[in-house]
Amino acid sequence: MDTQLAQRLLALLDRVEPWLPEPRPVVDWSRDVAALWQRHALGGQLVPVPPRDALSLDDLVGVERQKRELLANTRAFLRGLPANHALLWGSRGSGKSSMVHALLNTLADEGLRLIQVDRHDLAGLPLLVEQLRHEPARFVVYCDDLSFEGSDDAYKALKSVLDGTLTGPPENVLIYATSNRRHLMPEHMSDNQQSHLTPDGEELHHGDAVEEKISLSDRFGLWLAFHPFNRETYLDTCRHWVERLGQPQDWDEEAPVAATRFATMRGGRSGRCAYQFALDWVGARRLAEQA
Prior knowledge:
The chain has 291 residues and is an alpha/beta fold. It folds into 2 domains: 34-226, Rossmann fold, CATH 3.40.50; 231-290. 40% of the residues lie in helices and 16% in strands. It has helices at 3-16, 64-78, 96-107, 125-132, 155-163, 208-217, 231-245, 254-266, 271-290; strands at residues 34-40, 43-48, 86-90, 112-117, 138-143, 173-179, 196-197, 204-205, 222-226. Strands 2-1-4-5-6-3-9 form a 7-stranded mixed sheet, sandwiched between helices. Strands 7-8 form a two-stranded antiparallel ribbon. Helix 7 (231-245) crosses helix 8 and helix 7 packs across helix 9 (271-290). The protein is globular. Residues 204-210 have low confidence and may be disordered.
């Protein structure tokens, strides 16, 4: 090869290499059960990650119906039966994300594989789904804490994957998303100004703004709502985590009073709040014993 050409090619590589992503471990779906999808300028890549914790579905208290329906939907999917994309929506800290993590820990041995996609990487979702189309495993692509602003167009990629392409989503891929918003987008009073009744007054037709916002969440066939805990459910959850993180005797007469005070200071009752109380309560007990 011409020496001058070789030098120019080496100089070009020196300039291009900083733009290339760092080499990542190759995902082996016979071994790895979870991965993160990371988009970059040349497409995207899967990065294998270990399951975050040993959380099980039994650890989620007060959401029995939601657990039952999501578990049944996912098991049907793993067995090649018809199943729906799922939207888990509702109050913050109520167990939406934890349920997906626990689902992986429960069903990984049955063939479930989980891929998490950040909202900012959704533009690469069609590419990811197409890569998974010919894989033998069955995947839940998981979008956590999903929401879009009024001027955000990233949701169009998700709409396309759910039910907007000629080929449709692969039969080995489901989309599960969690959100604090039922329709994933902000809803304003002005959106209703275009709604109107039919001339006979029997039907209400929504305007284009409302229809556009509903169209995304409507593509999820399974909606699971998560609501704030009442006092009884909150205390049951606190007791579960105190006994799990510590000892049964740690849940004494003082614990419910302290748990109620903790929730009041946090401004609400939820599974997350119960878990945080248990960490505080058990940690303080063990620390006092070591003093």
